[in-house]
Amino acid sequence: MRPLLTGLSLVALAAFASTTPASAKAAPATEAAALQAQLERIDGELHSQRELIERQAAQIADQQKEIDSLKMNLELANSRGAGLVAAVEPSDGAGSTPLPIQPVGEGPAQPKPEEQAQVLAIPHDQGVLTPAGQLVFDPYFEYDHASTNRLVFRGIELVPGIQIGLIEASDADRDTITTTPSLRYGISNRLEIEGRVPYIYRNDRIQVVQQRDQQIIRGIALRDDGLGDAEATLRYQLNAVRPLQPIWIASLRVKSRTGTGPFEIPYDDFGVAEGLATGSGFWGVQPGMSFLLPSDPIVLYGGLSYFHQFARDVDRVIGETFIGQVKPGGALAANIGFGFALNPRFSYSLGFRHAYIFPTRTQIGDTFQRSARLQAAQLLLGMSYRFTELQTVNLGFEFGVTKDAPDLSVTLRMPIVLFR
Predict the structure, then answer these.
(1) How far apart are CA 116 and CA 39, in angstroms?
(2) Partner of 383 at 20 to 30 A CA spacing, among 18, 37, 312, 419?
């Protein structure tokens, strides 16, 4: 820039000299020196302005980075209707660089808060954590339907089609309605606690057909309700929210045995249940890890967890059989999916979940028996509508794709921010 301006100065002087009358050419040398000094001063001012523009451009670039980071945080903050995250925390624990007090240039226009699309339809335990000091009441309603059809033959088969023994066919339909009030509280911007106490209503209808010398048909209809297994969960966000990076969340869930377990319901003299369980009957703990990865306009999510239940001594005679120690099998579960915001109020999600359930070890009399391994896989569909900043309605569907999974599950959640 300086050589160019100097050249322009010389050209200007030459032009001035060529167009000045002869009388002016005889002017004192001091006037030419003054003009040269004035041109050099203008050259210096232009150079200073160029440096100022470069500094302002660097400040604008820094501001844009901060805006992108804050926007990413805002897009994820209400991913399950938990409210906005207060700030983006740096990973090293130091305070973030403050923005300039005076605005430099004109930044890109930001959408109004009510116009920003938020993905709220992803599963309730996959979202960004509740902000510090915020309390959310999250009532949860769930309907499950499962049906099984089994044919059991106990005997011998002489030739194909000719059987000697007992043939038993059973058709079971089970409907379960669960009402679960829950509360979530943000201890800090990276740590939240949640408590849930379910109430369960069950309706089972079982029809058994036995073929001996003659056909015997028996129908069983059972209805029961009661308190389920209360549970508490801690979730901790491992890293800060940064553009193009996943958010990792570690969780620990503890389940009690406040509900009525399967070994606590009444049985008749033949070992046939006369009631229905509303709980598992065992204490359990479930560590897990999940992630959220924003990729505008969607949010990818996934997780892995292991559910362990502690063994206990039942020590009860059911029918004519003594049941001793029971060690329930653990469950290894994984899920993956994505959420998509169609507009600022409506979003939906699609996902897949699979659980591998290990065998249960049961002491029956003087021997120990193991149950079969189970595979429970489900397709997930969710949708969400945000009425206000404090109230959202989420509707979810789960469709079983293996015989060990429930045929259908429908969930309805209405999280409400009580205070923040």
Answers:
(1) 53
(2) 419
Asked whether the beta carbons of 379 and 407 are under 8 A apart, the reply is no
Taking the domains of the chain in order of start, what are their residue ranges? 2-77, 135-419
Reported as a single tens digit per residue, the pLDDT across 281-291 is 999 999 999 99
Q: What is the pTM of this model?
A: 0.69
* C-alpha–C-alpha distance, residues 280 and 258, integer Å: 9
Query: How far apart are alpha carbons 15 and 38 in whole angstroms?
Result: 16
Q: What is the pLDDT of residues 387-420, one digit of tens each?
A: 888 888 999 999 999 988 999 999 999 999 988 7
Q: Are 171 and 206 in contact (CB under 8 A)?
A: yes
Res 334 pLDDT > 50: yes
* Residue type present at position 48: S
Concatenated DSSP letters for 287-325?
EEEEEEEEETTEEEEEEEEEEEE--EEEEEEETTEEEEE
Helix (H) or strand (E) holding 261: none
Q: Given this structure, which CATH class describes domain 135-419?
A: mainly beta
